[in-house]
Amino acid sequence: MNSVTAVTLPRINPDRLWSSLMDLARIGATPRGGVRRLALTDEDRQGRDQVVRWFREAGLEVRVDEVGNVFGRRAGVDPSAPAVATGSHIDTQPSGGKFDGNYGVLAGLEVVRTLNDHGLRTRAPLEVVFWTNEEGSRFTPVMMGSGAFAGLFTPEFIRERADIEGKTVGNELTRIGYRGPQPCGQVPGGGMYAAYFEAHIEQGPVLEDADLPIGIVTGALGQQWYDVVVTGQDAHAGPTPMALRRDAMLAAARMIDAVNRIALAEAPHGRGTVGFIQAEPNSRNVIPGRVRFSVDFRNLTQAGLDRMDASMREAFAMAAAQCQCEVDIAQVTKFKPCAFHPDCVDSVRDAARALNLPHMDVVSGAGHDAVYLNAVAPSGMIFVPCKDGISHNEIEDAQPEHLAAGADVLLRAMLAHAS
Ligand SMILES: [Zn+2]
What we know:
Layout: E1 2-3, H1 14-25, H2 42-57, E2 61-64, E3 70-74, E4 84-88, H3 102-117, E5 120-121, E6 126-130, H4 144-149, H5 155-160, H6 169-176, E7 195-201, H7 206-210, E8 214-220, E9 222-231, E10 235-236, H8 248-264, E11 271-273, E12 277-280, E13 286-287, E14 290-299, H9 302-322, E15 326-335, E16 338-339, H10 342-354, E17 359-364, H11 369-373, E18 379-384, H12 400-418
Parallel strand pairs: 1-5, 4-6, 4-7, 7-18, 8-17
Antiparallel strand pairs: 2-3, 3-6, 8-16, 8-18, 9-14, 9-15, 10-13, 11-14, 12-14
Bound molecules: zinc ion.
């Protein structure tokens, strides 16, 4: 076998990458061209079996950990060197697409296949990983497998999580044959990855809008999620004069408007969304006495998130007082803002430059497995455009040449750390 030098770096095989993506998308395919492979269902097992078959065919040594994360390892010339890893997830949303997550796993597989084609060995071992339940649709929390690997959740906590039917992660892992013997968070030979890279569709419109094939992901927005309950008094819509109402819906409406204003004041990285709302009694001729809604705030810095939190509390208290209602705000989820490791960000940028691929720095608005990995190993991400910026949807689409470009960048970035 030859050793790897920068000048002789091969290019990945775009057709093979595309056909593997299409083959995997047949498992759990939906009539409208999407994919439904919820975590730890029979469809997920079939998807896992398919990818494991491909891992083995590519010569990877496969191991499964106790929360169902699957690792394919390609030996390096120096067995004592810490591995360079890549991966993502293959579970999907209920009406998900072909590319979210799947692309990152199969781009990693394509890197290995390309090295195999050219008989190239790296100094450090390489690993391709798929993490259990990134989507968080059937089981919460999201990014479960990578979070456990990074030590944020214990394996016991993960295995006790249940879906709405009461089926637990632990039992479902056993049922589909993916409760492995490997302790979670351990890498063969001890230590941790030298670097972790994840290629992913952007899931937003920025790259497509700028007409660029590659996004150098410098970090991910922090997130703070809240459950809000506004309590007033239900009363008849006719006999109750406007001035004497305690209208929880009116208060909630002013609060929702405030969420939007607070996020706009934090441009360009602030985000504020109310995506869930429930009114009681939800009857056309009754003034609502109770309204529940969610708030999702995102920002690039913790200071920014703190400002949004403070502004929200002030605005909600004022709206509640104006409407003679009470408001209760509970923070339910928090992800700290993430800055990817400068070495990994630079490797991705250098790779895009070396390949003459137009690129820009971007920040991820969504959470990804790489955000958790970044807590235990230097990590970076590569984004490629997706059509109209749409994902978590059956119409999610991406161009073969963009997917190939991202995989070429991944190959170079990994080799920069492994050769
Ligand atoms: Zn994803």
